[in-house]
Amino acid sequence: MKQDEFIEALRRELSSLPKQAVDEIVADYREYIGDALAAGRREEDLIAALGDPVKLARELKAQANYRQWQSRRSLGNLFRVMVSIAGLGLLNVLLLVPFMLYLAVLTIGYVTFTGLTIAGIVGVVALSGHHLFSTPAHGIPSIHFGSREHDKSANANSVNASATPGNDKGSEESPGNLKDLKIVGNRFVFDLQDGSRVSMVTRAGPIEMRREDDQLNIETPSDGARQLLTKEKDGTLSVRRDEVLTLDVRNDDDDRVSFASAGPEGKSDVWKISSDDGDRVQIEEDAHGNTSSLSANSGPDSMQIRDGSVDIADGRDRILVHASGGKYNHLVAMLPMGVLGLLFCVWLTRMSWRAVTRYVKRQIDVVSASLDRDPTS
Amino acid sequence: MCVLAVLARGDSYAYQLVSTLAETMEISEGTIYPLMRRLQAEAWVSTYLVESNSGPSRKYYSLTGAGRLRLLEMEEEWRSFVSEVNCVLGQQGKQNSGENP
Q1: pLDDT over 80 at B65, yes or no
Q2: Among A104, A105, A115, B67, which residue's Cβ finds the most Cβ atoms within 10 Å?
Q3: Phi, psi at residue A206, to the nearest 5°?
C-alpha cells in the first residue's frame, strides 16, 4: 500500500468527524510518514507498520465521540460512543439489546408514574373541592336562606340534629322553631303552646291533640294509643319515638314540622319542616340514622344534598357538585404511589447513568490501553 | 505512560517518540496518534509547531504540569502493582514448596 492509499482510506473512514479534526489527523500522519521516509525506510514497510487505516480510524472516532460525550452528556452522544465502541469489537452489540429493553421499561415506568402522580393531584384537588361543598353539618349555619332570622336558626338546628346522628339521643333538641315539639332521648316530648295542634299516627292508632285557651284536648279512638302518652312532671306529654309512624305538629303561625317513618320496620325517617313563609327543609334518614338526603328551600333558593351530590341554586345561579368519595380516595392514594415511583425511576436512572458512564469510561480506557500495549493492533 | 516518560526527558515529535520507544519495546507505529490525541485531550501534553527547513512544519509534543503529576502517580501505581504481583508470586512459590517438600 502506498501512503496516498493509506491517507485516502483514513480520510474516508473518518468522514463522520468534523473536517478540521480529519485534516489535523491526516497532517499528523503525513508528517510522520515524511519523517520516516527521510530516515530511509521503505514506503511499503512503513505503511504496513502503521497498521490498518480502518482500525485506526475506528479508534480515533471512538475517542472523538467519547470526548464529545464528556463535554455534552446527552443520550445521543452516549449512543454514538457505544456504537463506536461496539465498532471496535470491545462491546458486544448483543449487550445493547437488553440495555435497550431496560431503557424501554424505564420509560414506561416514567410514563406510568407520571400518570399516577397527575391522577393523584387531580384527586386531591377534586377531593378538597368535594369537602368544600359536601359537609353540610358545618356549612349549613353559614348558608343564608334569605328568610327570617328565627327560621334560619331553626333550619340550622334541625339539620344539626339529624346530620349528626347521636346528637339527638340524650340531648335535648327541638326540630324546627316550634317550641311545641322536642326530642329527648328516644322520645318525642310535646309542650303545646296556645293554638298549636298535633296529629299523629301511632302503632296503636291515631291521636289528635290541640291546646286552645290553655285547655289541652286529646282525642283518640283507641285507649291503647292514649296509654302510649306519658305525662311528665312538668306537665308535658311524651311518646316513644319508635311507636310513632307519622307526626304533624303545627302552631298558630302555620309553622309546621312533620315526621314520617318509612322503609322496612320504620327505620328510615323523613322529616319535613316548614314555616308559614314557604321555607322548607326536608331530611331523609336511612336505617342507620345517617342523613341520606337533605334539601332546603326558601323561596327561589334551594339546596339539595343527595347521593354524594350537592345542588345549590338561588333561582338564577346554580352550583351542582357531583362526586363519589371512593373514586377520589383511590385517586388520592395514587399520588404518593406516583411520587414514590417517580423518585424510584429517577434514582434508577441516576444509578444506571452512572454505571453506563463508568462502563464507557472503562471501555475507552481499554481502547487506550490497547493503543498503549497491544503491539499487534 | 511510557510516552509520558519519554516526553519527561524532553520535548519531541511523533516519529522521534516512536523511534525512542521502539528501541526498548515493541510498539505499533500507527497508534501513536490516537494515543497522543488522548493525552492531549487529558491535557497531559501540549503541542506546538516548529517550522522545519525541509518539508512541512513539525508538531512537537511537550509534557504539561498536569502530565508530569500524572506520570509521577502512574509510576507510583506501577511500582506498587509490580511489588504486589511480586509478593503474590513469591507467596505462591512458598506454598508450592510447602505442599511438595
Answers
A1: yes
A2: B67
A3: -75, 150
Domains of chain B: 2-99 (1.10.10.10)
Output the CA angle A89-A93-A99, nearest 5 degrees.
135
A160 and A298 in a single domain? The answer is: yes
- B59 touching A, CB under 8 A? yes
Tell whether A158 and A277 lie within a shared domain.
Answer: yes
For residue A60, list chain B residues with Cβ-Cβ distance below 8 A. 33-34, 37
CA dist A11 → A228, A247, A368 (Å): 113, 104, 21
A372 interaction partners in chain B (CB closer than 8 Å): 1-2, 35
Residue A168: which pLDDT band, with cuts at 50, 70 and 90? very low
Q: Which domain holds residue A164?
A: 149-323
pLDDT tens digits for A70-120? 777 666 777 777 777 666 665 566 667 777 888 889 889 889 888 888 888
Q: Is residue A91 part of a domain?
A: no
> Per the CB < 8 Å rule, is B32 touching A39?
no
With beta carbons under 8 A apart, name residues in chain B contacting A34. 55-56
Contacts of B41 in chain A (CB under 8 A): 63, 67
**Residue-wise pLDDT tens digits, A256-290:** 888 887 755 656 778 888 877 778 888 887 766 67
Per the domain annotation, does A73 fall within a domain?
no
- Using DSSP's 3-state secondary structure scheme, residue A290 falls into coil
The residue in chain B having the minimum alpha-carbon distance to the alpha carbon of residue A47 is B30
Q: What is the pTM assigned to this prediction? A: 0.41
Helices A3-13, A53-71: crossing angle, 10 deg rounding = 40
| Chain A: closest CA distance from residue B5 (Å) | 13
A178 with A316, same domain?
yes
* Number of domains, chain A: 2
Query: Residue A104: CB partners within 8 Å, gap ≥ 6?
Result: none
**DSSP output for A15-84:** TTS-HHHHHHHHHHHHHHHHHHHHTT--HHHHHHHH--HHHHHHHHHHHHHHHHHHHS--HHHHHHHHHH
Mean pLDDT score of chain A:
74
CATH for A169: 3.90.930
- Among chain B residues, the shortest Cα distance to A49 is held by B29
- Tell me the chain B residues in contact with residue A50 when contact means C-beta distances shorter than 8 Å: 29-30
Contact A371 B35 (CB under 8 A): yes
Q: Is B22 on the interface with A (CB under 8 A)?
A: no
Closest residue in A to B38 (Cα–Cα): A63
- Is the same domain home to A279 and A163? yes
Structure letter (DSSP) for residue A256: E
B70 pLDDT more than 80? yes
Q: Does B49 touch chain A (CB under 8 A)?
A: no
Give bridge partners of residue A361 from the DSSP assignment. none
